[in-house]
Design brief:
By secondary structure, the protein is α+β, with helices and mostly antiparallel strands. It contains four helices and eleven strands; from the N terminus they run E-E-E-H-E-H-H-E-E-E-E-H-E-E-E.
Length: 195
C-alpha cells in the first residue's frame, strides 16, 4: 500500500495552502498491489483514509473489528468496478465537513453555509450549485452522511480549531475571540484612526 499527504492549492480559488475542503487539497494518491488485488487497474470509487485500517485487517485475514468508522475497500481492490455505498467524508476543524461521492462534493461549514459541486461536469469546482433549488434533493441526500458528532481536538494537542458556540461566541484554539483580536483578523481603519 502506498499513499501520501494530501494536496496543495497554488492560488486556485484564491487559496494557497492545504487547508480547504475542496478536491485539490483533500485528494490523496492511493496505490495497492499484492495477491488478490486487480493488476494494472484503476478504481474511481471514493474512499477515505479511515478505510485503510479495516482494509488491512481484512487483507491480513484478521477478524474484523467493530466500532471503526472506515469500511474495507477489499471488494474494490478485487474488482474496481464494484459499487461502493459509502461516500468519503473529510473534516477540517470543528463542524466543517465535506461529503464526496463519485459525482458530487457537498460542503457544509460551521456557520451553515454550503457548497455543492458536480465533479463530472465541473472537476475544478468553479460553480457552486448549493443555492440552486433544483439541487435541494441532492444536498438533502448527501447531508445524511454528515457526522452526527463533532469531537473537539484531543486535549493538550495543538489545534487550529475555530468554533462558534451555541451562544454565538467565537473561539480560536480554545480561547474566546472577537474579530478585533483574532490572530488572522482584518481590521478596517475608521477615518479618525486612518494613517
Amino acid at each position: 500500500m502506498l499513499f501520501s499527504d494530501h494536496g496543495w492549492h497554488l492560488g486556485e480559488k484564491g487559496q494557497t495552502g492545504k487547508l480547504s475542503l475542496w478536491e485539490r487539497s483533500t485528494r490523496v494518491p492511493l496505490i495497492f498491489a499484492g495477491p488478490g488485488i486487480a493488476k494494472s487497474d484503476k478504481c474511481n470509487r471514493t474512499v477515505e483514509l479511515l478505510d485503510l485500517y479495516p482494509t488491512l485487517i481484512e487483507l491480513a485475514g484478521l477478524p474484523p473489528r467493530s466500532g471503526l468508522e472506515g469500511h474495507s475497500i477489499v471488494p474494490q481492490l478485487k474488482d474496481p468496478s464494484t459499487a461502493r455505498e459509502f461516500p468519503a467524508i473529510t473534516t477540517q476543524d470543528l463542524n466543517n465537513h465535506t461529503v464526496r461521492t463519485e459525482r458530487w462534493r457537498y460542503i457544509r461549514y460551521f456557520d451553515g453555509s454550503e457548497e455543492l459541486y458536480d465533479e463530472q461536469a465541473d472537476p475544478n469546482e468553479w460553480t457552486n450549485l448549493a443555492a440552486d433549488t433544483k439541487y435541494a434533493p441532492t444536498k438533502q441526500e448527501l447531508a445524511k452522511w454528515l457526522p452526527k458528532v463533532n469531537k473537539p481536538g484531543i486535549p493538550g494537542s495543538v489545534t487550529r480549531f475555530f468554533e462558534v458556540k451555541p451562544d454565538g461566541s467565537r473561539w480560536w484554539e480554545g480561547k474566546r475571540i472577537d474579530d478585533d483580536n483574532h490572530p488572522n483578523a482584518k481590521t478596517t481603519d475608521t477615518p479618525e484612526t486612518a494613517p
